[in-house]
Amino acid sequence: MTQTQRLTDEIAARSDELTALARELIRIPTLNPPGEHYRDICEFLAARLKRRDFTVHLLRATGAPGDSDRHPRWNLIARREGARPGECVHFNSHIDVVEVGHGWTVDPFEGLVRDGRVYGRGACDMKGGLAASVIAAEAFVDLCPGFSGAVEISATADEETGGYGGVAWLAEQGWFGPDRVQHVIIPEPLNKDRICLGHRGVWWAEVETMGRIGHGSMPFLGDCAVRHMGAVIDEMEQTLFPALGARRTEMPVVPPQAQASSLNINSIHGGQAELPGDFTGFPAPVVPDSCRMIIDRRFLIEEDLAEVKAEFAALMERVRDRREDFRFEIRDLHEVIPTMTDRDAPVVGAVARAVRRVFGREPEYVVSPGTYDQKHIDRIGRMHNCIAYGPGILDLAHQPDEWVGIDDMADSARVMALALAELLA
């Protein structure tokens, strides 16, 4: 029996164990924000991996954004050395999940199994992928104890809020340096027959328009900042949105609509703060002197970040030219440069050949519409041999009744194990 067949059969034999592991991970409610139960899930995984002779490190990202004594940013890195020197293959999964939201018909933290699926918040994004990588690594080290190099598994914090308390911090500390890690696979839910090479860029900014406070019965004595913001939005509708929609990228972004530039208005806050829910009175009649808008601009690898910012600044200047007493500020919040791994990178080739063996067809090469932790591995860690590959359907992420298919997890685990065998055995 070939090594490929042995690994494939072994993953199939561990399907129930894979399902159970995914359920156990879902039952730990690692909600972010604020960052609940990070240490609990790290300790759970540490106890399991120590039984396979992984050396385990629990690492707190002290001082990172969001880290506090109440909600410490804990991360896990587990490493299993092989019998001979060689390269390291690293599986990186984030442990945090977004808020539950409304519309669920099942308990979001039960890990319900029904009709070949495991349901729960984080099932798809990305505890199913984390479980698949653990099972793949365990099966590989059990069946191929003489492998060269090392296998690493990480469980990291805060990807949903930028990854600064997780992969970014770890990369700054050298954990993803090319001297100790040579191949990285991130089991994000991009579908089991796809290889994700990278992602678009992002610029978040806060835009504020300023006015003058006044009495609501005499708005002519004030200057309404919300009306100024309305003029900004109208200019966006008339000029910016059509321009962005007309731009296309050569990156294979999915879905196809995301192959254009885009901008989302994340939030708008103008005037008085919202009153507490138990307040039974009425708001005061005041002309708002400030209105703040958060914009989320996604840009293409063909675009330059400085030009992206300049384009929006020019829009604001056009509005100022038409409006008396128009004042504004633009404050940068967050930015990420687009990234895309070469198709001929070693980890891409190994995973592609594993996909062919498992599914009998060529993988689809895609790029994610949103960013994920590859940005930190690439830019901070300087480790460019990195992809996303994992089970799950991206459209289910952050949705009510989120689920991951059991067969999809097992198939992805087969691909991961075969990629390990090629790169290390």
UniProtKB/TrEMBL annotation:
Gene3D superfamilies registered for this protein in UniProt: 3.30.70.360, Zn peptidases
Pfam families (alphabetical): M20_dimer, Peptidase_M20
E.C. code: 3.5.1.18
Cofactor or coenzyme needed: Zn(2+); Co(2+)
PANTHER family linked: ACETYLORNITHINE DEACETYLASE, ARGE_DAPE-RELATED DEACYLASE
Domain Peptidase M20 dimerisation per the UniProt entry, residue ranges: 198-318
The protein's name: Probable succinyl-diaminopimelate desuccinylase
Species this protein is from: Halovulum marinum
GO MF terms held by the record: metal ion binding; succinyl-diaminopimelate desuccinylase activity
Membership in a protein family: Belongs to the peptidase M20A family.
Biological or metabolic pathway of the protein: Amino-acid biosynthesis; L-lysine biosynthesis via DAP pathway; LL-2,6-diaminopimelate from (S)-tetrahydrodipicolinate (succinylase route): step 3/3
Catalytic activity of the protein: N-succinyl-(2S,6S)-2,6-diaminopimelate + H2O = (2S,6S)-2,6-diaminopimelate + succinate
Ranges that cross the membrane: none
Lineage start: Bacteria, Pseudomonadati, Pseudomonadota, Alphaproteobacteria, Rhodobacterales
Keywords: Cobalt, Hydrolase, Metal-binding, Zinc
Top-rank lineage group of the source organism: Bacteria
Leading EC class: hydrolase
Claim: Acetylation is one of the keywords in the record: no
GO BP terms in the entry: lysine biosynthetic process via diaminopimelate
